[in-house]
Amino acid sequence: MGIVDLSVPIGEDTLSPPSVNLQLELTSYHRGPGFWQASKIEMLLHTGSHVDFTRHVQEDGETAFDVSLDRVSGPAQVVDLSFAEANHEISVADMQAHAQAVAEGDIVLVRTDWTEKHWGDFPTYYLESPYCSPQAAQWLVDKGARAIGFDCFSEYCARLPDFTSEDFIIHKIILENGAILMQQMTNLSKLPVDGRFMFYAPFIKILGAEGSPARFFAVLD
């Protein structure tokens, strides 16, 4: 049995998604005698590997406190789109060709290998990423996916100069249909593409939070 870490590293060079466009700040405090350190971190909840909940797109939506861990834990499968290059639109045709095995209640991880190639290369990571079409997102929701993760930045609108919250249509399709959105995944190339495996996305249980940092991992036999 092995654990595959599917989370990206974050630090003071990490840029949050373009919707807010902030950098992480880490401040450390020390107290003696001897060595003792306690640090404060300031970052968007959507920096690096994270989970999104419906409060992200709906004022009365559920938050990190409301979502049980079984919503983001359990059997998962990879949709292998590793052929996708920069600016590739993930389409319904891609889903029909590579995601027919998705069934009701599955956790689905969409693999493009973009994060493995470009994490830390900002803003290219966001502005040239493969992205998901609304129709493909709806296809996965209609197939019954209860949680959907991407190793690319799923929203096309990130590259537009004057986008609004309404342009984040992939978030809205997934979250408003009752599924969970998981973002900034990596190492999906290390997972099997021909069957299911156990996947876990523990997140911080923050009252009122529309999203939460997560440590994604898979357990393989």
Note the main attributes of this structure.
25% strand, single chain, globular, 221 residues, Glucose Oxidase, domain 1, alpha/beta
Description:
With 221 residues, this protein is of the alpha/beta class. It has one domain: Glucose Oxidase, domain 1 (3-Layer(bba) Sandwich), CATH 3.50.30. Helix content is 15%, strand content 25%. It has 5 helices and 13 strands. The protein has helices at residues 92-98, 114-118, 124-127, 134-143, 169-176; strands at residues 2-5, 25-30, 37-42, 50-52, 73-80, 89-90, 107-111, 131-132, 147-150, 180-183, 197-200, 211-213, 217-220. The strands form 3 sheets. The protein has a 9-stranded mixed β-sheet, with helices on one face. β9, α5 and β10 form a beta-alpha-beta unit. α4 (134-143) packs parallel to α5. The protein starts with a strand and ends with a strand.
Give a short overview.
The chain is of the alpha/beta class and 221 residues long. Helices cover 15% and strands 25% of the residues. Helix 1 runs parallel beside helix 4 and helix 4 runs parallel beside helix 5 (169-176).
